[in-house]
């Protein structure tokens, strides 16, 4: 025996089998033409070892365990109130709500003074209501998605901006018609009374509400767990995202009416930029609309650019 020479130069007797047993999480891949020999192949990705010869992919809501011998549920995540992505917007929203309420209280206190009357107090209250809703919607966007939260998101996400832009559009349209009519005759244009302005504003707002009602009928609101958004290459980092069933396209369509009001209001703001200095309401509205357009142009690429973010 000591004079025998084995392959590799060793003195140890070789194992008389062609394949070693596979480890957990590995399947046997048989060698063609040699049925008793195999290669051990790791069940990788989202696969687990179904039996000694096969790997199988876990269900969409599951991922393989550490040694790929079975499947376990994928952890569910949502935007937490303690997250910096929530704390900063909530702080800004609280400051905005306090500032808005301060202005409302000031308007109510001096409701019958000439300066409040001259500012168009009826539309100012409508505008402040829209601004308040815009800030308050922040809390709905961070709250845990369920049937009630998702339904309220659909209603109020675009409503606050629609109310604000409808009030501003009615204001700028009134200013434009007054000065255009003044070039032609001394008679006042129609529908410039406070009651008429409110009717026009609420008519514009009702179109937003009508669109939301149709959306509820066509596609009822509900929450979902999205396993595709955070389905990473490494199963260990896979997460299911709890969110409302509102697609990016649906969200843009929801905000589309607000965009239309905003663009129309901007057009009127440009047309009224040459009014006399004493009529000082037009210039702040114009400045507001120009900056709003810039914000919206920045919002769209940022929104779609974060489509793969868990905190979206």
UniProtKB/TrEMBL annotation:
Gene3D superfamilies: GPCR, family 3, nine cysteines domain (2.10.50.30). Its main location: membrane. Signal peptide: none annotated. GO terms for cellular component: plasma membrane. GO terms for molecular function: G protein-coupled receptor activity. Residues 85-312 form the G-protein coupled receptors family 3 profile domain. The chain crosses the membrane at residues 85-111, 123-143, 155-176, 249-270, 282-304. Belongs to the G-protein coupled receptor 3 family. This is Metabotropic glutamate receptor 4. It comes from Podarcis lilfordi.
């Amino acid at each position: 025996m000591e004079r025998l020479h084995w392959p590799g130069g060793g003195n140890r007797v070789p194992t008389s089998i062609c394949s070693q047993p596979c480890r957990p999480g590995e399947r046997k891949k048989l060698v063609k033409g040699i049925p008793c020999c195999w290669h051990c192949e790791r069940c990788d990705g989202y696969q687990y070892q179904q039996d000694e010869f096969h790997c199988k992919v876990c269900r969409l809501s599951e991922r393989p365990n550490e040694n790929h011998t079975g499947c376990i549920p994928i952890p569910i995540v949502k935007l937490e109130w303690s997250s910096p992505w929530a704390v900063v917007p909530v702080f800004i929203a609280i400051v905005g709500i306090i500032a808005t309420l301060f202005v409302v209280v000031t308007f109510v206190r001096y409701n019958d003074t000439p300066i409040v009357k001259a500012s168009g107090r009826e539309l100012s209250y409508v505008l402040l209501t829209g601004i308040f809703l815009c800030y308050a919607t922040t809390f709905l966007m961070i709250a845990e998605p369920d049937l009630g939260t998702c339904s309220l998101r659909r209603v109020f996400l675009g409503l606050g901006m629609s109310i604000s832009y409808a009030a501003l559009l009615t204001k700028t349209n009134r200013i434009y018609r007054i000065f255009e009519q003044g070039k032609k005759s001394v008679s006042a244009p129609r529908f410039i009374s406070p009651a008429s302005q409110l009717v026009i504003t609420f008519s514009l707002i009702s179109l937003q509400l009508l669109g939301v009602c149709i959306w509820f009928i066509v596609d009822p609101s509900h929450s979902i767990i999205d396993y595709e958004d955070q389905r990473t290459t490494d199963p260990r980092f896979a997460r299911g995202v709890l969110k409302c069933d509102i697609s990016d396209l649906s969200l843009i369509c929801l905000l589309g009416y607000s965009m239309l009001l905003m663009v129309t209001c901007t057009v009127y703001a440009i047309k009224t930029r040459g009014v006399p200095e004493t009529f000082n309401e037009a210039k702040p509205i114009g400045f507001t609309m120009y900056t709003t357009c810039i914000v919206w142009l920045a919002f769209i690429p940022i929104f779609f650019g974060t489509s793969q973010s868990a905190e979206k």
